[in-house]
Amino acid sequence: MSPIRGFIFDLDGVITETSEFHYQSWQRLADEEGLSFTREDNEQLRGVSRRESLLRLLKGKTLPEATIQDYLYRKNAYYQEYLHTMSPDNILAGVHDFLVDAQKHKLKLGIGSASRNARPVLEKLDLLDMFEVIGDGYSVVNGKPAPDLFVWVSGGLSLPPNEVVVFEDAEAGVTSAKSAGCKTVGIGSADNVGHADTRVDGLHDITVKQVLQLFGNV
Predict the structure, then answer these.
(1) H-helix or E-strand containing 109?
(2) For residues 205 and 120, what is the distance between their CA atoms, to the nearest angstrom?
(3) How far apart are CA 42 and CA 20, in angstroms?
(4) What dotted CATH number matches 19-83?
(5) For 96-105, how does the pLDDT look when each residue is reduced to its tens digit (9 = 90+)?
(6) Of residues 217 and 204, which shows the higher confidence score?
(7) What values do phi and psi take at 181, rounded to 5?
(8) How does strand 108-112 pair with strand 164-168?
């Protein structure tokens, strides 16, 4: 078994929680355009790209590309408004201590997020400097659940995927990481991440040492 030498973290739902911002942004757009959209619909958007999220919101309705681009621009503008309120207070419980401990263990750290706002969010949280590689919605053509993003971040860390543990809160994200060949820790509900190698409620619920022991490191 290869030793674990790196951790890759999804952003939303693992490091911070911006899902309410996303929901409010999509809901605002849906209301303006007379589209049906509920919190249950929003759950189906977790871990996927902005464009794929819009296509799911449209539920098969076809629109000209110019209209699609307008919708995407407006949703992101609404989301950016909400992001201005973020601060280090929005870091989820246990995250900062977990990251510091991972650095003490000489692990390479990266972000693997579908969001195109990953960098500004990390800046707001004052966490950007803790990660060697930021994989985001600009990094690869094929987003989650394709394996490309985690392969890309692993490569940026100069590690083979089988020496990396991915922390994910979305079904698509866990599928992506496993397809890439990474080990996986699911964060949150078993309904979303039950197919991960192991599952916890959050980074406050597990230690770096426990993760390393789980995947074979002495």
Answers:
(1) strand 108-112
(2) 27
(3) 9
(4) 1.10.150.240
(5) 999 999 999 9
(6) 204
(7) 100, 10
(8) unpaired
Joined tokens for residue 93: 């419980």
Report the distance separating Cα 117 and Cα 138, nearest Å: 9
* Whole-Å CA distances, 95 to 127, 129, 204: 10, 14, 7
Of 139, 183, 185, the C-alpha closest to 13 is 185
Query: Could you confirm whether 12 is annotated as catalytic?
Result: yes
Q: Pick 6-16+88-214's CATH classification: 1.10.3720.10, 2.70.20.10, 3.40.50.1000, 3.40.50.10190.
A: 3.40.50.1000
Q: For residues 97-119, give the mean pLDDT.
A: 95
For helices 50-58 and 19-33, angle between their N-to-C axes, nearest 10 degrees: 50
Q: Is 10 a catalytic residue?
A: yes
Structure tokens at 161: 């995927």
- d(CA 82, CA 76) in angstroms, rounded, equals 10
- pLDDT-above-70 percentage for the chain: 99
Residue from 81, 89, 109, 94 nearest 8 by CA:
109
DSSP strands (E only) in 130-197: 133-135, 164-168, 183-187
Which residue among the candidates 10, 41, 136, 169 is catalytic per the annotation?
10
Amino acid code (one letter) for 103:
Q
Query: Within its chain, how far is the Cα of 45 from the centroid?
Result: 12
CA distance 156 to 121: 20
Pairing of strands 108-112, 133-135: parallel
> Domain map of the chain by residue range?
6-16+88-214, 19-83
pLDDT of residue 195: 97
